[in-house]
Amino acid sequence: MQIEFKEKHSEDYFREGVNVQVQYQVIQKKPEGKLKDYFTLTKRYLIILIAMAAVLVLVNIFTGFSGMSIFALIFLGVVALLDIRYSQTMNKLLEGYLKETRHSTFKADSQGIRLERGGAAAASLNWSEVSFVRVFEHCILFAGTKAPGPFILVPVSCREEIFSFMDQNGIKVRTIGR
Length: 178
Description:
Layout: E1 2-5, H1 11-22, H2 24-29, H3 38-63, H4 67-99, E2 104-108, E3 112-117, E4 120-126, E5 130-135, E6 139-144, E7 151-155, H5 159-168, E8 175-176
Parallel strand pairs: 5-8
Antiparallel strand pairs: 1-2, 2-3, 3-4, 5-6, 6-7
Helix pairs in contact: 1-4, 3-4
């Protein structure tokens, strides 16, 4: 089976793909677990950190600054900077995927699966190396057995074709969210 993706995938697909990528080790440990939207969480955490710092400053204006409150402000500042850096890294990953112009091809046979970009192999897994297949809202994850190991993501739009191929060829892999 071969599926060619000539059109650009949606931004939602890539956002979900980045979330899968940054949470891959957690997903491997708890395959049925909820996929968190880290794009939203990092923004929420930053707002909470800023609010906490503002309250701390206001309290200290009226009560006087102590060494502990200054330490707490520095700590909140460092955590906020780490949150901003993490958010920037995720956004750079997303921008990189959105700028990708090469067409991709998903191939599956009795031996395994392979994702190619621009004619070159991007990732491949033998069926024996696929720990599970998980269907998300916008993508399908083929998770490898090795942690952190390789994985393959494809758009959910080809769900029927992929699962039909697996059923017809007797490929038994744990499937979540089918």
